[in-house]
Amino acid sequence: MAMNKLYLKAVLFMAIIGAVIISVDQSGMFNPDMTNFHEKLQWDSFYDFTRSNDVDVLLVGNSHLYTGINPNHLSCALGANCFILASPGTTITDSYYALKEGLTKCDPKVVVVETYGISSTRVRDLTGGDLTSQFRSFSSRKNILKKLVSTPVLFSPDNYLSAWSSSVRGHDMIFRDPDQIKKNLDGKNVPAKKKDLELGRFTRFITGISDATDKEYDEKGAVVDGNDFKVNRENFDSVRKIQRLCDRKGIRVVFLTLPMYHKHVENYSTWHTIISRVIGLGYDYLDLQEPYDHEVFTKECFEDTRNANQHMTAQGAFMADYKLASFLVDKIQVDLPHRYQSEDWHRLFYGENGYLENYPLDPNDNRNFPLSGKANVGGISILNCAFVPYDDGSQVFMRIDKRTDPALLRNGLELYVNLEMRDGRVERYKIPVRKIKGVEPLRNQVLESNVLPITGVKSASLSGIARLVD
After folding, report:
1. Bridge pairing between strands 224-225 and 265-266
2. pLDDT value of residue 20
3. What is residue 206's predicted lDDT score, i.e. its pLDDT?
4. Average pLDDT along the chain
5. What confidence tier does 216 reach under pLDDT thresholds 50, 70, 90?
6. Do 132 and 280 belong together in one domain?
7. Is the peptide bond before 337 cis (omega within 30 degrees of 0)?
8. CATH (domain of 223)
């Protein structure tokens, strides 16, 4: 009887402790800074998006993916719906569980798996910042049953409670960051405002490798040696699980390696060979590190660092998007739905990054200015031309029929543009537009100007076009 009372007291004590932890968790007392909680924003947005839209291309990986691919731009390039589910510092094992949950909410035609998480790191061995990233990735997901199943795989037993409770994993905030606790209790720890169309992108780097860093590469050599690359059994098995999962559901799976700066890596062929063997035969693999496109992936495409874990810039992602789009449609011919034929899809994506390189202006657009509709100039079949003002400048985009001989566009065109300014002045500009290496829309060609230091435009019109010569 005494023993039963002891057990009862122990159970009651544990229930009280559990209730306290749940109560503190719900209060948000030990929440991290929510303004930079990209993972939660990503999953919240995913559930919001899939309530009324399907996802055609679902991409999973880590920070190399969400900095190296822009899903909004990729969607515009493909004319489809793309979404990224990725967390920093995690392995392919975490990507597998993210994919399992993602596939409960959408039915994609293709899953793209970024390969940087295929490594020698065991997910249960993560420590420090990488373990924190794993906690953040796990806590952001919403499917309780799938989280329960994945807990013993993703975490060692001493981290189970931390995985599920912000209070357990963040209680040292009392000493480490009391200001954050005060902000949490005052209700001032507000998540970052979601953009109108949030598809999993996280822009971290805008400027590329500096001349000083480039010189350092020349003096000190590569940072990463492909001969050191290894893959453990856990990650090998996770690749197979992803493949089997997609095969069962009839989903095309594509593996993607996003590049680092060509001077950053040596002996990459070893790395490539290992990844290829892990992926195995019968699965598509796009490796943008090898062969390396020197004309497209310039130093402006990469984070200005010689740290081993180098990411891409917004420009680098822009170039990688077109590479991936071409691979999916032209190379392996994935049968994607033609959502770009739907007015609803255009309303969703209108004005997104890359939209005007791929589609005409909306006739009701009251921000951008049409310069030309369909026209033929010296054998160049123009589809449309638009003058696009930004907050700090302006740019011109000219879409050209895909069938136009690229040789006619080699040197570009010069546009004679009349601009009526808001102060009443009329200014005339000669604006050169050229093909940008790597910017290759699927359904048209495009010429574009540099961003011009022109602001305060009220209206724009085109008075003439001339071909540029050598």
Report:
1. parallel
2. 53
3. 87
4. 90
5. very high
6. yes
7. no
8. 3.40.50.1110
